[in-house]
C-alpha cells in the first residue's frame, strides 16, 4: 500500500513547525470528526484553524517551511500556512461550513451536562428529605410496636415485594418496562438479595451486643467500603478532594451523633468480634449498592442506550431478599430473643397490635404510624436507588449520610407520641459544620478537570 502524505502548518509565527499527516481522510465527512479550535492569539494571517486528529492518526514534525503538496494531476500546489486540503477543498472552507454544527453540538453537550447536574441535585435533596423522614418515622412507628420490632422489620421486607411488583406491573403495561428489561439475567438480582439478607442478619447480630452510640461510628466504614469496591469493580479513580471530603463527612457524623456518649468505652466493652461483625455487615450493604450500580451500567449497554427501570432492580432484588430472609428466620428470630417455636404466636400478636385490634394494650398510634413509616421507607429506597442510578453509589451514600444530623436535630423538636424531646449532643454544631464542609469539598471540581467518576462509570464491566 502506498503511503499518502499531506503536510500542513500551524503557522511559522506561532509554532515555527509544520506537521505531516500520515493517513488520508477517506471522505470530506471525516473532517467533521476532527476537533477544531481557534486561537485568537495566533498571529498568522488565516486565523489559523488547528486540527486535533483522532488517536489512530500519526502527526510527524517537519522542518519549518512552506507546505507543498502534489495533486492527482502531478502538479505541485503550494498550501498556505495554517491550511490543510482534503480532496479539492480546503479545511478552512469546511470549517466555515461545519463550525455552526460543531458549536451547536458543544452547546447541546453543555446543556445536557447542566440538566444532568440539576437532576442529581434534585434527586439528592429528595433523598435527604426521605432519609430524615425515614429515621424519624421509624422511631415513631416503634412506639406502638415497641414489643414487636422484628414484626415491623419483616412486614416491611415482605411488603416491599408486593408494592414493588405492583408498580412494576403497572409500568410494564404502560410500556415503560419492556420485555427486554425483564429478560435480563436474574443472577445479579439473586446476589443482591443475598447481600441484603446477610447485611441485615449480621447487622442485627452485632446491634444486639453493641451500644446504640457505637453503631454510628462503625457505620462510617460503609462509605469506605463503597469507595474501595467502586475502585476495584468499577475502575473508578477519585481525586484527592473527593477522598478528603468523604473523610470529613465520616468525621462529622461521628462527632455529631456520638459526642459525649462514651462510644469508645462501649466499643471496648463489647469486644472486637462484634465490632468486626458490624463492619462486615456494612461491607455486605456496600457491596449491594455497588452491584446495583454495575447492573445499571451493564444494562445500559445491553439495552442499546436505554436505561434499566429501577423498579425491575428493586422488585427482583426484594423478592430474592425475602427468600433468603425466610431461610434465615430461625437465626434472625433468635437474635431478637424470640424462640423459633414461639414465632407464629409472636407474629399473630404483632399483627393484632399493628391493626390495633383486640385486647392488646400500648398500641396507640397503630396502624397509622407504622404505615407511614413503611410508605416513607419505600419512597426513601426508591429515591436512593434513583440517585445511585443517575450518579454513583458513593454520591447516594453521602446524601443518605447528610440526613443523619438533620434527623438528630428533628428529635429535639416536640414531636407527637415521643414525649420529652432529646437534647442536642455536645458536638452537634461542630460535627454538622465538618460534615457540610466535607460534602462541599467532595462536590468541588477544580477548573479545567473533568469528573473521573462519570468517565469511569461507562467503562466496560467484566
From TrEMBL:
Subcellular location(s) of the protein: Membrane
Alphabetical list of InterPro entries matching this protein: CRT-like (IPR013936)
Membrane-spanning parts: 117-138, 150-169, 189-211, 217-235, 242-260, 272-291, 311-332, 368-388, 395-415, 427-445
Lineage, top ranks: Eukaryota, Viridiplantae, Streptophyta, Embryophyta, Tracheophyta
Membrane-related topology note: Multi-pass membrane protein
GO cellular component, one term: membrane
Name of the featured protein: Protein CLT1, chloroplastic isoform X1
Organism from which the protein derives: Cucurbita maxima
Keywords: Membrane, Transmembrane, Transmembrane helix, Transport
Entry similarity comment: Belongs to the CRT-like transporter family.
Domain of life per record: Eukaryota
Amino acid at each position: 500500500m502506498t503511503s499518502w502524505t499531506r503536510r500542513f502548518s500551524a503557522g511559522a509565527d506561532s509554532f515555527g513547525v509544520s506537521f505531516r499527516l500520515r493517513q488520508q481522510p477517506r471522505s470530506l465527512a471525516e473532517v467533521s470528526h476532527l476537533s477544531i479550535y481557534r486561537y485568537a492569539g495566533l498571529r498568522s494571517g488565516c486565523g489559523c484553524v488547528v486540527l486535533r486528529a483522532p488517536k489512530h492518526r500519526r502527526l510527524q514534525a517537519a522542518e519549518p517551511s512552506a507546505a507543498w503538496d502534489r495533486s492527482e494531476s502531478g502538479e505541485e500546489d503550494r498550501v498556505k500556512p495554517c491550511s490543510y486540503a482534503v480532496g479539492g477543498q480546503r479545511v478552512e472552507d469546511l470549517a466555515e461550513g461545519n463550525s455552526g454544527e460543531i458549536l451547536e453540538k458543544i452547546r447541546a453537550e453543555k446543556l445536557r451536562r447542566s440538566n444532568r447536574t440539576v437532576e442529581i441535585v434534585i434527586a439528592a435533596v429528595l433523598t435527604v428529605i426521605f432519609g430524615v423522614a425515614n429515621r424519624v418515622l421509624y422511631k415513631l412507628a416503634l412506639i406502638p410496636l415497641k414489643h414487636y420490632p422484628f414484626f415491623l422489620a419483616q412486614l416491611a421486607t415482605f411488603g416491599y415485594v408486593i408494592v414493588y411488583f405492583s408498580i412494576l406491573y403497572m409500568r410494564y403495561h404502560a410500556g415503560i418496562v419492556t420485555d427486554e428489561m425483564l429478560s435480563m439475567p436474574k443472577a445479579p438480582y439473586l446476589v443482591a438479595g443475598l447481600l441484603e439478607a446477610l447485611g441485615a442478619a449480621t447487622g442485627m447480630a452485632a446491634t444486639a451486643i453493641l451500644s446504640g452510640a457505637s453503631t454510628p461510628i462503625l457505620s462510617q466504614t460503609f462509605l469506605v467500603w463503597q469507595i474501595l469496591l467502586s475502585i476495584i469493580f468499577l475502575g473508578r479513580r477519585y481525586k484527592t478532594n473527593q477522598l478528603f471530603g468523604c473523610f470529613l463527612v465520616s468525621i462529622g457524623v461521628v462527632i455529631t451523633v456520638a459526642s459525649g456518649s462514651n462510644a469508645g468505652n462501649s466499643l471496648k466493652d463489647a469486644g472486637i468480634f462484634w465490632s468486626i461483625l458490624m463492619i462486615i455487615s456494612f461491607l455486605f450493604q456496600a457491596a449491594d449498592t455497588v452491584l446495583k450500580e454495575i447492573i445499571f451500567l451493564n444494562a445500559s449497554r445491553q439495552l442499546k442506550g436505554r436505561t434499566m427501570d429501577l423498579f425491575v432492580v428493586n422488585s427482583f432484588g426484594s423478592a430474592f431478599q425475602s427468600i433468603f430472609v425466610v431461610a434465615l428466620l430461625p437465626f434472625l428470630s433468635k437474635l431478637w430473643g424470640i424462640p423459633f417455636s414461639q414465632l407464629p404466636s409472636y407474629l399473630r400478636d404483632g399483627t393484632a397490635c399493628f391493626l390495633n385490634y383486640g385486647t392488646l394494650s400500648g398500641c396507640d398510634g397503630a396502624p397509622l404510624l407504622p404505615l407511614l413509616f413503611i410508605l416513607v421507607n419505600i419512597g426513601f429506597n426508591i429515591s436512593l436507588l434513583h440517585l445511585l442510578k443517575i450518579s454513583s453509589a458513593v454520591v447516594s451514600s453521602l446524601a443518605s449520610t447528610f440526613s443523619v444530623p438533620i434527623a438528630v436535630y428533628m428529635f429535639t423538636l416536640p414531636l407527637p407520641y415521643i414525649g420529652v424531646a432529646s437534647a442536642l449532643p455536645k458536638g452537634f454544631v461542630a460535627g454538622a459544620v465538618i460534615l457540610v464542609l466535607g460534602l462541599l469539598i467532595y462536590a468541588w471540581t477544580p477548573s479545567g478537570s473533568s469528573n473521573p467518576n462519570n468517565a469511569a462509570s461507562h467503562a466496560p464491566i467484566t
